[in-house]
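U., I forgot to send this yesterday:
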Amino acid sequence: MRKKVEEVSAKLLKYQYHYYVLADPIVSDNEYDRIFDQLLDLEKKHPELSMKNSPTKRVGSDLNNTFAEMEHSVSVLSLDREYTGEGIAKWVDKISAAGNMKAEYVVEEKLDGASIVLYYKKGILETALTRGDGIRGNVVTENVRTIGQIPLVLPEKIDIAVRGEIFIKKSEFEKFNKKFENKYSNPRNLAAGSLRNLKSSTVADVPLNMFAYEGYYKGGKGHVEILSDLRTFNFPVNKNLGLFSGDQSFLAIIKNKLPGINTGPVDKIFDYIKAQTKKRENLDYEIDGLVIKVNGIDLREDLGETSHHPRWAIAYKFDSPAAETKLEDVVIQIGRNGRVSPVAILSPVQIAGSIVARATLHNQEYIDILELGIGDKVSISKRGDIIPAVEKVIEKDLDNPSIYKIRPDCPFCGTLFVKDGAHHFCRNEECPERIRRAIVFFVAKGQMDIDTLGEKTIEFLLKKGFIKCIPDIYSFDYSKLLGEEGFKEKKIDNIRNSIEESKGNSFATVFTSLGFAGIGKVAVADLIKYGFDSFEKIRETTETGNIEAFSDIPGFGDITARFLIEHFSDKDNLKLIDDLANAGLKVKADKKEGPEIEQIFTGETWVITGSFENFNPRAIAAEEIEKRGGKVTNTITSKTTYLLAGENAGSKLDKAKKLKIKIINEKEFTKMLI
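Result:
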């Protein structure tokens, strides 16, 4: 029986190689499925014969993985980089000046994906590690086994370590992202995040690909020979390669080994770089540069490496990053609903006309994907020209090549964090930072708009114990501020007046200002539109437990409905609403508050890009579209109805023009709303 399992496994591995790597299937899908099911049945009946690298591992497991750490046994360094042809020329001259006039150079595409190192023993995949901090990586073997292009068993019983890049094709990313309503921002982050998914069965559904670009084993002579061997070992190797040497006979030999490789004398490297740069946009995967490497292994050893990059390779980056700076620290922010947000503290750097010293890091999973640690050199950008974000690590801190981990407890109240999905939360309702954030949100512009209560004033009132919660804003005797530094009669009168004016705000404004998670302006507008126009009506329906009464509201859905019921089942929230009612705030919509807006965008899909004068942030424009029945997405496709384009619209504008999508400017959009 063991022999039968081995025979069927070998047959399937061959079929998988032809399908995933060569893109040249040699059997029909039905025949493949028949043999695959045969192996599954054999392994089910004889589990002791199931091999850890069985072809059936491609489908993954529903069991949770734990990502242990392990040290790399090969060098996993970063690359030095240049942004100009002149810089590359100087690097080549430097190699030649060291007495290496006969050096051969290989030029490869620098994929923008997730680095992986695969370790094989006697031809069997033993371990797959992420790059990590360059010294240690996360063990993601079970997830990597699901990637069809990665061989589980090699045709030779060889000990080898293979370094490569996990990536997702642009076309496959677009199709995959549609299934999740454009949840994922780009292929790179999806690829890196998938490698750390706790369930390998989920990873198996992601269209991950791999190119191998380095091999470490006994007998390796030159880099192009190693790449040729990797193909022989059934690894996918990028065909877009250039080899440059003064030895014409050597070039002829390599052309036979690697058909399709571009070759030429060393001085043609720069022409090749220009040509490949122009071809970048036509590729079905993301690259952010080219890598120029010395071919000879002996010469590589002579040149050596620094503590963070090899001297025998350099990256030519297509575009200078929006900005490069150093991560000085990470601070933890706690939102009004308890969500933990790590924020990068950066060495100040200018980007898009302003000085940036802080940037969002989202959550621990995002930090892990970046493999980011304090002291690292990073690339940052302004997403949508508004929010600074750390995009990638350029160079690890040599003295402490670590990955930052969020502390286990709240720095403001000491409560242990709870992980829910991708985020950590402080669940302490009495957390002073949560209370402060809730009050600041409540009075902010766009909410209750009590402009005389700025953050500093609120912090002062809290510190003094004058207020402890939102309703205290309306019950506190502000005459007690007389004599306090910075508070004179006129200022106190202004505070009283603006607080009194806020009582005239609509029910919808009061509702959204409470900041209940998952219940934004659109959800509140929908509730009012469909008859839930008071806190009392919502409370009464919640008490019946009839979730369908809310989920049946068009566009509302089960998730929002559950959020609503959770909030209105919380006795602290109900007391908050009662206290605000007693303070004179509106707890019921006026008749004029819920008029039906003409659904002029029904059935239309909009994409918004660029910056606007009257719709800043862009979410304001999105809200106007959704209120009128339209749908807003992040990606331009052939099904997009309109692109709303502001200043600095970028690549989405170009794509819309190619697809002949109707493009609307801010002025035209405003007229449509009237």
